[in-house]
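User: Predict the complex with zinc ion.
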Amino acid sequence: MTDLTIRNVNILDGTGSAEYKADVEVEDGRIKSIGNAGPAKTEIDGEGKYLAPGFIDTHAHDDGAFFRHPGMEFKLAQGVTTVVSGNCGFSAIPLDPTKDTVAASGGILAGIEGDFHDLEGYFAAALERKPAINNMMLVGHNTVRTLAMGMERRAPNTNELAKMKGYVEGAMEQGACGFSTGLIYRPGRWSETEEVIQLAATARPFDALYTTHMRNEGEHLLEAVEETLLIGRESDVHVHISHHKSAGQPNWGKVNESLQRVDKALAAGQRVTLDVYPYTAGSGRMIEYFNLDNINRSLAEVIRIASCPAFREYEGRMLVDVAAEKNVELTDLVLEILTAPKGDRTLCIHFIIDEADIETNLAHKDMMIGSDGIPDLNGQPHPRLFGTFPRVLSHYVRDRNILSLREAVRRMTSLSAATFGLTDRGQIREGYWADLVLFDPDTIKDTATYDDPKREPEGIDLVVVNGEIACRGGSHSGVGSGKMLRYRRSAFGE
Ligand code: ZN
Ligand code: CU
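Assistant: Here is the predicted structure with zinc ion placed in the model:
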């Protein structure tokens, strides 16, 4: 008998087509039929609700979260059934126990345990924890560069470049979906364009991706977009621009010009896609944004502390408020935080994005949704960790009408699956894996805020991962049916 049937539900199949009403039958992890269902072991009434493919978070830093929080509640509750980890140039693999690559990421990847060094080892170790959702991996430039040449502020020599290429190639052979950079971060910021072209070209035989946190997202956004497009052309790989934005008030509006350049490249036949998170604040490791010899005061003014092992009492507070209360100079406070023991592990939230730019981004047809959530639950994380996907559907679809529901779902599912090489996922189609989300488009809503960021969304009734009920009525089943996915192949271990 069929394992699970969802009856009389409005199906948004992920392709962007209009919804239609039917029953969906699930058996052995896959969608068995769409139409009129017979009896099933578990029956769910979908009347009045919408069923979509599980959402795909194209921009995640969950490499370590699969070890620390295998229940992945913050993603699952949003309807996310697959994440792409290893973004911004930082990946859990390759791992050399004698070298501290995790330190280079400032704790973003912390918590990884297990005796592994490559992608297959990582997959096996992560699967042992019975993850709630699926994971796909990128191999990160900052990580491989740290392994090959430490924190050297120069171009690699021939041996070092060959070593990096070997790491990237090895990861692709084992199923990584691409190569990621974070060119504002250390040590990636010390690389020249040619080095990145050489490494991105390693993805070409696999037809895999080059994803990038570009060298500049503010004053030099347009130059950075040109560099990205050049890397894509020279290496002949599909480029994916991560969290596209114009950072800093003087630069607001530049996303228009940036998207025009992308459109020009698309018209010329280049493969380019992007993603965005639906918030006006960014978040990351605070030490990466400041020059300690010359603290940027205007940036400090828009910063709120997310997590700070050195001063837990600052978490959830704006720096300006802390400075006023302590009666200290704002720039001195920044210095105090960043130079304290473990100060380099401080994560901050910075309000640097214009609301209008988010809407411009979301109106672009090749714009996917990526949370960029940093899964550190100790402090007061950016609400995007818990709220990204419902926020797009409630605020930008329902309230603001920037894009239609079916188009938003397409950009969260089939477009992402096709781009990131998820085999038989991202659509509600017979034979496809049953990653599903049942929700009410009239009530779906993110509830996580900057003041109260660890709240799960409303309006999502059911999330199914590989045919198993992972979350129902807001309660997590703990079934752990997630898989480690390989680019355009069967999942790891299958
Ligand atoms: Zn980034
Ligand atoms: Cu990121």
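The chain has two domains: 54-280+352-427, 289-347.
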